[in-house]
Amino acid sequence: MKEINDLNLPDDVKYTKDHEWAKLSEDIVTIGINDYAQDQLGEIVFVELPEVGDTFSEGDEFGSVESVKAVSEMYIPISGEIVEINESLEDAPELVNESCYDDGWIIKVKPDDVSELDNLMNKAAYLDMLKG
Amino acid sequence: MPERLNKPKRSAVFMDLGLLEYSRALDLQIQTLQSKIDQTITEDRIFFVEHPSVFTLGKRGGEENLVVSRDFLTAKSVDIVQTDRGGNITYHGPGQAVMYPIVDLEKNKIGVKDFVHGLEEIMKLTAMEFNIDADRNKRNHGVWVGNSKIGSVGISIKRGISFHGLAMNINPDLEPFSWINPCGLTNVSMTSIEKEIKSSADTDDLSDDDLTMEQIKNAFIRHFSSVFNYSIIRNNDHSKKTKNKQAVVA
After folding, report:
1. Measured between CB atoms, does A90 come within 8 Å of chain B?
2. CATH code that applies to domain B2-248
């Protein structure tokens, strides 16, 4: 596994305790898993996605990733409706490993209450959690 | 050793369930997982079990890799159970050692990739105790002796806690594996510790004392402890004779 100092953790996204990232842009929140998660999961071979129109409450399981014979659930960090899923992951799940903040994004959510994002961590707080 | 002082051992309770139906063992895993999520159980638990004959499917299925009909399995009284673990179709039966670690990977900072690697390592080290040279294979995860598979891994992770686990062939009837493409792979032969011992000694003569489930259980406990840095508390729950008796063994 990567050393903490080697992790790619951009400053312009928020982080969850479940090692996901979320980024708000024009009232839509894009969500994926972060570099720590993709690294410790290993080679991702399948991403189970929700459907557009599904609604979730903060903390609900919204999908899973399968890597190295392991199925890991993913949890949504904000309540809302799925407005887009990354369909390219169906044929190319490895994008999550190769480009977890860009081409490997997972879902886009129209949030019920955007202030829920305030509960997430910035990079410094997330790093403290990893080191803790 | 100062390093050891800074890194206290993780701990887990090890329970031998004996021979138990797959679905009952799965219920027990899920109850334990839920209790750990609810924090009514704080310690990690490891279940050791043999199952009566059963085929299980991974989360993404695998029934397409069944090469006999469902009617054939019904006639043989073998069920197929859908599960939510990683991996494809596999077979469990008596003579196969199965271990389900319900371990808080998040709390213990064990990465998923490292955990799967460690489970494979436990099987590799166990095979080595019988002078069997087992290793990983680029074809697939699990543990192999040459081109034959001897052990498999398939896990799930919920709220950072693992369930499902590993299965290693000790002395099972290997024929049911020929009814599937194990793990979704074609042209894979399966082997067992018994088969490898017999082929290296060039004999069919293996006494019951030479290979017992108790030996395998003890090897799994020892190697789980060393690979993942755990102290393991044995709790022989399934045995009335030793009920409530606990002993630290590693």
Report:
1. no
2. 3.30.930.10
